[in-house]
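Handout, section 4.2: multi-component inputs.
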Amino acid sequence: MAIAKIEGVRVSGIASAVPDTLRPVADFDETFGAEDVRRISQSTGVERRGVAAPELCCSDLCYAAAKRLLEDLNWDPATVDGLIFVSQSFDFSSIPATSCILQMRLGLPKSCAAIDIALGCSGYVYGLWVAAGMITGGGLRRVLLLAGDVSRATSPSDRSTALLFGDAGSATAVEKDSAGSPFVFQLGTDGSGWMNLVVPVGGQSSRHPRDSTTCVRKQAEANNFRSPEELFMDGAEIFAFTLREVPSLVSGVLATAGWNKEEIDYFVFHQANKFMLTHLAKRMKLPLQKVPFSLKEYGNTSSASIPLTINSELGDIISTQPLKMLMAGFGVGYSWGACTTILGPMVAPPIILVNKSEAWLC
Amino acid sequence: MDEKKFLTDMEDLLELDPGTLDCATELESTERWDSLAFVSFLAVADSNYGVNVAPKELQQCKTVGDLMQLLSK
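Output:
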């Protein structure tokens, strides 16, 4: 069973980065009509979102966050012996792993272990679990966990996804510390929901490779137009899935930790959309002032959404004092994970803005 | 099931004036029965009626009365 209590590690800092091009959802007024855009935005909670210029990859956003974090922590890159890149948007379609490129760009030593993990909404919690395990069981001392996505696979003519996702990258410093607070994890998977959040076609060795017709946008449902190379999301199925799984995930991880929900300072959820999170919070009887949101400014930022929310909403407080945290991510896969621990005081700089001139040139 | 209360819930959800809906109303005829309303209905079913509705069953509903049936199961 994927339930674990891990001791002997701590998170020393978190940094998050977004493109310096934050676009208002009103950009879509002409395509969808201002009234529809208003309704969608009211439901999702997204008013602006980071939209990366074509030159920028997810790794560039994560790189900027990692650079800043290493500086603020005063960590010599030579002391980092593990790097994890959690993403669904890689530098190359399959070969080589983006984590290898980031090892080089960040100047990490050749004695550093580097791996990619291909997860989205649940990816940050999975990344923390792998990082903690690498340190307590894998012989490492300092691990950089980089997580994020650049969501370029959405169709600009599909109202279920076009105004929702934002681009962001994050970096989390995890290190060995015998005095660190315990981390409790609960993870899960239900692959039977794979078809409800999927890019059906693409990649040379994929199930459905591209051909000359797969880039053509066709009417999908209602007034949505999308090609099979673009992201499909069945919002109702995803919502039903979270109702099924998230309340028991949250109560399960709390039970393993031996904590009750009243003593948690903040519940930092994957920023799926405001309607869903508000409903889940109400259903689990969580006070909304303990459930921070970064959706309004940055959109749904996939695996970066938990660290981004910590930097944007809790940065000042977590820099100076310890907080009892519950973090939970759930979605694409379906895949989900939750973690409780005490975070802070730690390095938590304000959100970093990344210009397209910072893209890696190769 | 309190039919009057259900109709009020549905009028709220579809942003309609009170008394606009009855059980025979075709969902297609209401302007707001779209994917956002689907998700709102799942939420109302969960919080007001304690029912977990499967989205596939929801898609098969043609009238307001069909929706009420889903919640009475």
